[in-house]
Amino acid sequence: YLTKQFKLLNTVTGKRGTFLSFILIICVMIASIIAQKYAKQTSFTDSWLDSCPDGYDDVCKGNGAVYRFSFALVIVYVFQLFGTLIHVEFFDNYWTLKVIGYIGLVVGFYYSTSNVFDDNGYAWFARIAGFFYVILQQIILIDFAYSKNEMFLELANQEESNLPLNNKWLLILLLICFIVYGGSISAIGVMYWQFSGCNANNIILSLTLCIC
Q: Domain of life here (predicted)?
């Protein structure tokens, strides 16, 4: 059944594009974290300090790296939006060109000053748009989780045994639940460690942990 689902990525319009979009976001998140660390250690990013307050050079460099990765991703997805409106198959195809274009944008932005990306430009757009984007993603994730839960339960009901230990689909469902909960709690712990300088962050993280 799962093999059949993976094959659908290449046959059902939208599935392949959605999957590759998700992979791209994960890769960009990892690359942003790495770039944030290394941007503080190189003199190449000194040109990003135009409007940086005194004593905050490392913070400005780290944030500047993340803004550049994020802004490039926004441009790629806006381009993908208009491309899909013109030609629906654009969403699923041309991913090699999209990735090359994204890398080109990031490299180009690394040679740009921070006036476009700091608090006078993209940063405020990212904060406001990011808030609504997170809400939208939560709705999508909840809907995705419910649909996959129903899928696994239907598969479990087709098995001869309804006992969890004898039903592979129930075992898979339980395993996914443990992984997701464990990953969520671990991620919150990492955020406590990485973003401990702001009381508002700690309050929001604590509320999130209580809800989990």
A: Eukaryota
